[in-house]
Every structure is written in C-alpha cells, then in structure tokens.
Amino acid sequence: MRFCRLCCIGAVVAFTARGAGAQSPAGEASRAARPPGSVSDERAQEARRRYERGLQLYGEGGSEGALAEFERAYQLMPAYRLLYNIALIRLQLNDYAQAIKAFQEYLAEGGPEIPSVRKSEVERHLASLKSKVGRVEVSSRARGADILVDDVVVGRVPLSEALVVNPGRRRITIARGGSSSTTVVTVAGQDHFKLVLGLDAPKSQAAAPAAVAPNRAPAYVAWGVTAALAAGTTVAGILALGAMSDLDEERLRVPTTRARLDLAESRLTLRAAVTDILAGATVLAGGAALYFTFSKPSAEPSRGGRDVRIGVGPAGLRFEHRF
Q: 2-129 domain in CATH 1.25.40.10?
C-alpha cells in the first residue's frame, strides 16, 4: 500500500532528524551526505515534528495537509528521502508536473545511496508521468520577470528549459513590478508548443482617454430650424397670395366701400410682412446650418468649443454664437 511505503521511508527520515545524537546506520548515512552541524538541533526537531504530523494526516486521508507538512520538513532539513514521499502524494493528487520534479530531485540528490529496486520504481513512475504532461516553451523580452503557472511561481525570464505543465486549462502569467499579463492555454498529454508573453501596462498607470464623438448637435438643430422656417415661409407666402387675390376681387366688386378695401389691404400687408420675416430667418438659419455642417465640430462645447443657441420669438429669429 502507498501509505506503507511512506511509513517505511519516513522511519529513516525520522531517525535522521534526531540530530547528531542519533546512533543508527540510517542516521550515520544521512550525516555522511552533509557537513556535520549544518542543521541546528532546533530545526531538526521541528522537521521531525512536521514529518510525524504529515504521516498522521496522510493516515487520516488528509493528503494535502500531509504534503504541506512534508514540504515544510524538507525546507527545514533537506533530506532527499522526503522527496520520495512528496512525489508519491503529488502523484496521488494528480499533480503530475510537480511529481516529476520531486522524483527527479530525489534521484539527483540520492544518487548512489538509492537502492536499485527503489530507483527502478521511480524511473517507471517518471516514464509513465512524462506521457501525461505537456511542455510549454515561454519566451519574453521582459528579462527578470516571474513566470507563474496557475498563480505559482515556476521560473524567471529567461527560462532555461520548457515548463512542464499538467493537462487541462492552465493560467500562465508573466509578472514584474506592477505589470502582469495572463494567458490561458489548454494542454493535453505530450503537447509541446511555444508561447510568447509580453507585459501589460501597470495597473496604476492612467489609461488613455477614450475618443469623444464630435458634437454634431448644432448642425442638426440648425437644419431643423431651417426646415421649420422654410415651411412657415411657404405657408405665409400662400396666405399672402390669397390676400392679394382677395384685394383684387374687392377692387372689382361693384359696389364696394372704402372700409372693405382698407381691410383687404391691411391683410395683404400683414401677411406679406410675415412672409418676408420668415424668409429672412430661413436664409439666416440655412447659413448657420451650412457653417456647422462643413466646419470642424468641437467634441466638448463646454470646454472652449462652440455654444450655439437658435430660436424664434415674436421679434423674429434669435441666433447666438459663442466660441
């Protein structure tokens, strides 16, 4: 069983972690691999406690907790035998990339001390795992930037070799200072592809202002007023022509009176005056519409652009233009 293998290798590490006072062959072999006194008694005791806690958690089914304790024990006291336990738990958690790394470090650090049976077993694991992972070659001009896979730092630009990544959707991030950029890739077993990463602008940097659409409202208003005035001029002109016809008929009427002639003349005069006023206003509004149509509009009238007001009142057309 896998737990039995952990206990077996763990017993060796536990004895080793007792420090310089240990009197066992395993302890002597471990000390021979490192200078005497390279690990303090306090760190060795802490490593042993964490290792034993990891065994307990693993026995209770807490693989992730056991992994954290084993890795912390290895940081406190880098005994290569712990890497075997770490690799097995990584394998159980389907973290193939980190299992490969731990197995390879185990072989490299253990060297000739590893029994041939154990070495063969690890090599079989590695051969099987390498068919399940993908490789991503990351290149970037951002020298010194960190490379992260699923938010875990795995290297720094420039990378000396391709990243070994687990199958599935992976978040590959490049980060330096306040700048970062993330690319999501889907990796299958034995995939091998290249990825070029660049850095986005720092989040604190002010974004460039968005382009503001030019303000065409003055042109639209001017053309609308022009159309309305033109319609009014047409109606007034028709009424004036009617008043002129009425005046001619009144003059030919027999008998007629001075009062009737004066009334017809006054109607013609009023309607003709209204027609003239509206025609003049139409010309002015049309000129303003042409100006706003063919001149360069201001995007923000409230900041030094044009301010235009056009209206019609009792006294005629009112036109205000401010630059």
A: yes
Residues 6 or more apart from 145 whose CB is under 8 A from it? 156, 157, 174, 175, 176, 199
Please enumerate in sequence order all residues whose Cβ is within 8 A of that of 143, keeping only pairs 6 or more positions apart, or say none: 157, 158
Q: ∠ at Cα 107 (169, 39), nearest 5°?
A: 105
Q: Using the Cα atoms of residue 172, residue 71, residue 61 and residue 53 in order, give the sign of their dihedral.
A: negative
Question: Any idea which residue has 């206990």 for tokens?
Answer: 7
Which H/E stretch holds residue 96?
Answer: helix 96-110
pTM confidence score: 0.52
What number of other Cβ atoms are within 10 A of residue 305's Cβ?
Answer: 16
Q: What is the pLDDT of residues 243-288, one digit of tens each?
A: 888 878 877 877 878 888 788 788 889 888 888 898 888 888 888 8
Rg of the chain on CA atoms, in Å: 45
Other Cβ atoms closer than 10 A to 316 = 12
| CATH number for domain 217-322, candidates 2.40.160, 3.30.420, 1.20.1250, 1.20.120 | 1.20.120
N- to C-terminal Cα distance for the chain?
Answer: 87
Chain length of the chain = 323
Task: Determine how many CB atoms are found less than 10 A away from the CB of residue 95.
Answer: 16
Span 169-197, average pLDDT: 91
Range 8-11, long-range pairs (CB < 8 A, 24+ positions) = 9/81, 9/84, 9/85, 10/51, 10/55, 10/85
Distance CA 172, CA 153 (A): 10
